[in-house]
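Appendix B: a complete holo record

For completeness, this appendix reproduces one full record from the ligand-bound portion of the collection. The bound molecule is NAP. The inputs are the chain sequence and the ligand SMILES; the output is the full three-dimensional arrangement of the complex, encoded as structure tokens. No fields have been trimmed.
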Amino acid sequence: MGCELTAGGAAIVVVGAGPQALCLCAQLLRKRPRWRRHLRVIDPAGAWLSRWRRQMHRLEVPMLRSPAPHHPHPNPNALRDYAHGRGRGHQLHGPFGQPHTGLFSDFCQQLIDSENLAALVRPGQVRELRLAPCRSGPLELSLASGERLQARQLVLACGPGEPRWPAWALDLPPLHPPAALQHSRTLNLPALGRLDGQRVLVVGGGLTSGHLALGALERGATVELLCRRRLRAQPFDSDPGWLGPKRLKAFAAEPSWQRRRQLVRQARGGGSLTPEVRHRLEQARRGGRLRLHEQIEVRQLHWGGSHWQVACSDGSALTVERIWLATGHQQGVSHQPLLRQLQRQRPLELVDDWPVLSPELGWGGAGVFVMGGLSALQLGPAAATIHGGREGARRITAGLLHRCPPASATVLGSGAESLRAAPER
Ligand SMILES: Cc1cc2nc3c(=O)[nH]c(=O)nc-3n(C[C@H](O)[C@H](O)[C@H](O)COP(=O)(O)OP(=O)(O)OC[C@H]3O[C@@H](n4cnc5c(N)ncnc54)[C@H](O)[C@@H]3O)c2cc1C
Ligand SMILES: NC(=O)c1ccc[n+]([C@@H]2O[C@H](COP(=O)([O-])OP(=O)(O)OC[C@H]3O[C@@H](n4cnc5c(N)ncnc54)[C@H](OP(=O)(O)O)[C@@H]3O)[C@@H](O)[C@H]2O)c1
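The structure of the chain with NAP bound, as generated:
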């Protein structure tokens, strides 16, 4: 390993147990199996992929958008091998092999079981983080339970920021029932009954808007799909060149952070649907059950007791019983509580609220690494996806190996449960 572990050190703590954190733990432990005892993952669910599974179930997402090599196992062929080895090759779609959601979930579970990764996760919501006053000291985390935990290195893999609510949906008088206006983050399609005779306004132009529109149609509703630009269809969020060296090499060579920010924005170009979902929506449009409103925004809402009156930017008006927001999530340091705290304690250059991390995704030498969408100035437009998780894991693993690992984690506070590691052999 090249450096000695000291008994007074602390563990690597990963906040969040989503797909990105799973990429990291699988890669790190493949490189350094004996670091297992120094690694802890904290997530409110106390289990891997809880939020990911919930969102796929609630939005009835039948398959992933990302291709077969994008998964948390260090070997990119592992998902294909798993599928073919179990006679489930038909659950990989098209030339890119996009996996069925169930296949992907089972594959991840097999990875978790075979590497005994479930044992790394403990339940908890990290509320506060405090950097050490001197650079060599441990960081301290406070959990919602009141427990405190020390860590030598911290990885934030908390997923996207807060749901994005358009201005017109904020500060409405509390007259409507909650179910009349919901964001995709909290919508639960399987829990809804039939919606026959109801009109649902779906706002947004990303793939979530497509799934919500299809979910409403399947339940018998008619749909008004309102998109602030033209609806676009493409297999992935951005050009596949952004998933490999073709575009990322030039991106990495770009010295201006502002320009990188611009490149990410342009590469994504807003939300998009897959051609399959676009086709199904088009069929519904032809059948008269879906109306598409492009390049239009909502201006104002009024709840009339049993339905919404919606005034639109082109002067038209809509009447609907439900409004579903598929407007994505806020991305920026100011929208992530732990990153806000970090920025207060160790200010880092921000470009349009995105942090300028080190190439290993480190936060200015603070012993903190950041995974997910906010690593986009280093990883490019796919940073928030599973592809970004793989690349982020590779870089953070390199960073952790370089920094020399911690020896244990210690829970502070009353009745302190010790996570102190056994001596290193
Ligand atoms: C419907 C939908 C479908 C998608 N499909 C794809 C796809 O096919 N392919 C693809 O590549 N990407 C897809 N994405 C993007 C997707 O969000 C990511 O792939 C993936 O979920 C990101 O993983 P993550 O680990 O960053 O975040 P998450 O899955 O959100 O996991 C983060 C975890 O951190 C926990 N956490 C947050 N804050 C704290 C805290 N303070 N303390 C403790 N724990 C905390 C959360 O509870 C959560 O469990 C999809 C997104 C959506 C919404
Ligand atoms: N596997 C799957 O099948 C699946 C399913 C769902 C989602 N996903 C993935 O999950 C990620 C997130 O997708 P998403 O659709 O939730 O989010 P998204 O791709 O960020 O799309 C959000 C959409 O909301 C629009 N929007 C934002 N604010 C708005 C406002 N104030 N008024 C009107 N419209 C507004 C955006 O418009 P602009 O286009 O103008 O920015 C965009 O079209 C993507 O990577 C996607 O591919 C995958």
